[in-house]
Specification:
about 375 residues; alpha/beta; Quinone Oxidoreductase, Chain A, domain 1; Rossmann fold; 2 domains; 9 helices; 18 strands; about 30% helix; binds NADP nicotinamide-adenine-dinucleotide phosphate
Length: about 375
């Protein structure tokens, strides 16, 4: 156990530029509860989207916070430092969703080598996958030397794997898959999967500032900046996968391709401050939110138990190795590091090759 006080990074739910760090007591553990030391967590634009969808999709409900403030979920590793649950041993290291805090207390409703499930009432409405802490020991994807890559990209890669599979499964995207925010890790994963499949070409759309980085990645067959979109060859069918959420860009793509757009999929909103425009009168198909759990369910039925995990694991290993050619992990510790990375990510000032891994412990 430790005596160090808790520290919670809080975001003002009505103005994300306002944030603060609150000191707390070390959480007490009652019968049936478990306390994690939040060792390290990754922070990318995806975590900012949790604020954007916080009210709509329940991301503000992961962890209790003072009125008007929220605690963003992040993917990380934690270690059990106190346990009054018979099936959770002190010292168990787990991958899962942690707050930007030093401690997380959970109330497992079930626990075993495959997962510890937080059954706390405030998380009851969240998808089961969001409430699961996976012990490293029973985790087929866990490799201690690749914890950083797992924190930074495991969840993002899974989404892109399922999106690529969805596109193929539905017969969309035989020719071109247009992917916005091509410099984001989620898009890089999708570009990698599409171009490696040989089925379609991956076209990356990005900002001028990130163009050279995206070209050098080698996972897109073509790269254009947002200003060059009008020059795209729009004579053949294409699919649009929207990671930017930028409404003006979406309109440009739809107007350019019209009915040759076979599908328009909404996955992200990295350009979170440019999402306000409406889609009224948009030519081509209506944009559809990509719902990854539905594709998981479908493939579990198509392929039988275990096969999706096997394919995912195999693809992950290829992508993780590919990421070694461009990903630079940046570790930051303590209050200032966490505040700086949060502010830079919110403002879109981070370098795309950087993967930020943070901790509120000075010694982590
Ligand atoms: N729905 C799902 O299940 C799901 C799952 C995973 C990820 N996603 C989404 O995928 C997106 C990418 O996440 P990530 O973690 O992979 O991102 P990331 O690696 O941190 O991406 C950074 C890139 O996003 C763009 N960007 C970020 N902040 C910006 C800002 N304030 N203004 C303008 N551009 C900004 C820039 O790309 P460009 O210059 O290339 O535009 C930047 O290089 C997120 O919106 C996330 O929510 C969704």
């Amino acid at each position: 156990m430790t005596d160090s006080p808790g520290l919670d990074f809080l975001v003002d739910k009505s103005d994300w530029h306002r944030h603060r760090l609150d000191e707390t007591a070390v959480p007490d553990v009652s019968e049936g509860q478990v306390l994690f030391r939040v060792d390290r967590f990754a922070f990318t634009a995806n975590n900012i989207s949790y604020a954007l969808a916080g009210d709509m999709l329940g991301y503000w409900n992961f962890y209790p916070a003072p009125d008007g403030w929220g605690r963003l979920p992040t993917m990380g590793f934690g270690e059990v430092i106190n346990s009054k649950h018979p099936d959770v041993a002190i010292g168990t290291r787990c991958f899962g969703f942690y707050p930007m805090s030093r401690y997380l207390r959970i109330e497992p409703s079930a626990a075993g080598p495959g997962g510890i499930f937080d059954g706390a009432a405030h998380r009851a409405a969240l998808a089961p996958a969001y409430n699961t802490y996976t012990p490293c020991e029973g985790d087929p994807l866990y490799q201690p030397e690749h914890e950083d890559a797992l924190m930074l990209m495991r969840g993002l890669f899974m989404t892109s794997f399922l999106a690529d599979d969805f596109i193929a499964d539905n017969g969309f995207g035989e020719r071109a898959v247009l992917i916005s925010s091509a410099s984001s890790k989620t898009s890089i994963a999708l570009g990698y999967l599409v171009s490696r499949s040989g089925r379609a070409t991956a076209v990356g759309l990005t900002s001028e500032r990130n163009r050279d980085f995206v070209r050098e990645l080698g996972c897109y067959d073509e790269v254009v900046t947002y200003d060059e979109v009008q020059g795209l060859d729009a004579t053949g069918p294409a699919v649009y996968v929207d990671m930017a959420g930028n409404s003006a860009l979406r309109r440009n793509i739809h107007e350019l391709f019209g009915d040759r757009l076979m599908h328009s999929s909404t996955i992200g909103a990295t350009h979170w401050d440019q999402t306000a425009g409406d889609d009224e009168g948009l030519p081509g198909p209506s944009p559809e939110f990509f719902f990854a759990p539905a594709q998981i369910q479908k493939r579990a039925a198509d392929w039988g138990p275990g096969e999706l995990q096997r394919r995912l694991g195999e693809a992950w290993e290829g992508f993780r190795k590919f990421s070694e050619s461009w990903l630079e992990v940046r570790r930051g510790r303590g209050r200032e590091a966490v505040e700086r990375v949060y502010e830079d990510t919110l403002a879109g000032r981070t370098e795309p090759q950087h993967g930020h891994v943070l901790s509120l412990w000075e010694d982590s």
